[in-house]
Amino acid sequence: MSSLSSSKARSNGAAFEQLISAGCRYYIKKGIAIIHKTPEPMHPIQQMGNGRFLAAYDKKAQPDYQGTLRGGRSIVFEAKHSENEMSQGRITTAQWADLDGHQAMGALCYVLVSFGFRIFAMIPWEVWKDMKSQVGRVHLKPTDELVRAYQVKAAGGGILFLDYCWLKKENGGKP
Q1: What CA–CA distance (Å, rounded) separates 79 from 63?
Q2: DSSP track, 48-88
Q3: N or C, which end of the chain has less CB nearby within 10 Å?
Q4: How far from each other are the two terminal CA atoms of the chain, in whole angstroms?
């Protein structure tokens, strides 16, 4: 990956995180959920003095967001952004195992996807894992019916990602 594309990817990732964080703040304010970004693991490389240090990020193992919904159920999800297509392989082996583990313990698990900041979908983990039989391939396109089935809105500067996975259930199928 070139330096320019790496920089664009970091910028897109940060913008996507801001949209998700705005959604998290909305749900906290409404008393619906408390969800936070999982801190990136890092290890110090060199002490710089005065409590400062040079550090490097460790390889990411955990999903991006974890929290609790009103009523006590845990929610865990990975967030992925792409301009065009979303490959199932973007979830690392460690993240896959972690999402499987959380789901086995009763957590609601998802992959929140963004296609070019225009289309957002909160795809249940079981559906993501079964992508090959769901859409006939191991990548999603923004035009896929599967994406439309789990599409959520962006409003007020944030992604309303719980509209599909929790609010519809709580409101008899209506967001």
Answers
A1: 8
A2: EETTEEEEEEPPP-S-SEEEEETTS-EEEEEEEEESS-EEG
A3: N
A4: 40
